[in-house]
Specification:
Layout: H1 9-22, H2 26-46, H3 60-66, H4 77-80, E1 83-87, E2 91-95, H5 101-106, H6 130-146
Antiparallel strand pairs: 1-2
Helix pairs in contact: 1-6, 2-6
Length: about 150
Amino acid sequence: MITVEFDDSKIKKALQDLQSATGDLSPAFREIGKQLVESTKQRFSSGIGPDGQKWEDNSQVTIERKGRNMPLVDSGTLMAEINYQIIGNNTLEIGNPMEYAAMQQFGGTKEEFSHLWGDIPARPFLGISSDDETEILNIIEKHLTNNF
């Protein structure tokens, strides 16, 4: 399993404050999880990763096979399987259980993976954008405010 972690001091500090105030991060984690699932799914329509970079276009072979140039969009399964889970009292994970999700996130070459029909460019769809960070902080602030 591949793990992508986002380490941001503002979010960590806000979560620590919320943990101290409430003792229970799960209500905020549920809201943050839903928000991140939705923003991740929106990346499939925009074709822009959490870092703000546009995904590389599909190869001509893929465009001809699919009849369109929408990277990571075929049957919709990859997008549909984005989910979140809360682990214990202090971990929120956003991910995708599909076996090929890591290849789409990080890319790979035919040289590395002989079963590929060609090189696959990295098209990061998991991660936290600057808009996500703002929304996470807003959610945490709302939960802090509601507890005082």
